[in-house]
Amino acid sequence: MxxxxxxxxxxxxxxxxxxxxxxxxxxxxxxxxxxxxYSAEEMxxxxxxxxxxxxxPPRLKDPLFMAFAAKYLPAVASSLxxxxxxxxxxxxxxxVQIMSLLPDPEKEPYFRxxxxxxxxxxxxxxxxxxFITGITWLRSSGPGYxxxxxxxxxxxxxxxxxxxxxxxxxxxxxxxxxxxxxxMKADESYSRLEPIQRAQIxxxxxxxxxxxxxxxxxxxxxxxxxxxxxxxxxxxxxxEECVVCDEDELQLFLCSKxxxxxxxxxxxxxxxxxxxxxxxxxxxEY
Length: 286
Description:
Blueprint: H1 12-25, H2 40-51, H3 58-82, H4 89-100, H5 109-116, H6 123-133, H7 143-156, H8 171-186, H9 195-213, H10 221-233, E1 253-254, E2 262-263, H11 266-280
Antiparallel strand pairs: 1-2
Helix pairs in contact: 1-3, 3-4, 3-5, 4-7, 6-7, 6-8, 7-9, 8-9, 9-10
Domain MYND-type: 242-281
Pfam family, one: zf-MYND
GO molecular function: zinc ion binding
């Protein structure tokens, strides 16, 4: 899908079609058998579809990723649990990087809901371990984007997923990621990464260091993550107040279909539906 800046947003039908095509290209509708990997043609199919979005502004490509996140993230998680990085590196790498290209969970409600759900159990460890071991990079992704994905998982996934109950990733894996980041920053190739990727790597490095030793205020581990999450949740409209009128005194209710935003009245809900919520309202399995 190619659009020039200024063109209208993709329709719901277009977004769903794009998401379905990506799921098909990534073999989510026809999972690989044990020990088999993506062919070169399959890798190229995913690569081409993602690369087509690269020149588009977020307002045009985010609805496409939203449609994918709403329907296919459970299938991505299921595939990652089945695949092995040793014998199915292309497939595993591709799915990790598709996740790494999703919009910020603070802005993308379905990605956020998935990270907060039991469906994400074990996925942070798998993603972090692949970052350490090494994955096959897609051209539109890179180490910074996957570092950013790990940051999101630490921020939004349940902290009791980890073996020390201090973070969604096991303590030993967190330490190994930290070592990997230190080595990455010391390598001469680090300076050749685009600025956004260096910033993403630095952000994860800072988070992991703070989880280990704590900032001057003293918070560390689980307490630090929960404080960060609270700050992020406070920035999301429609969670603690009506998404339309900002009313927070009355009894609020969730959209019964997507369960991602709240309203204070049926009038506000109807207004938001007409204003565009109908395009991005999806029922999910999580």
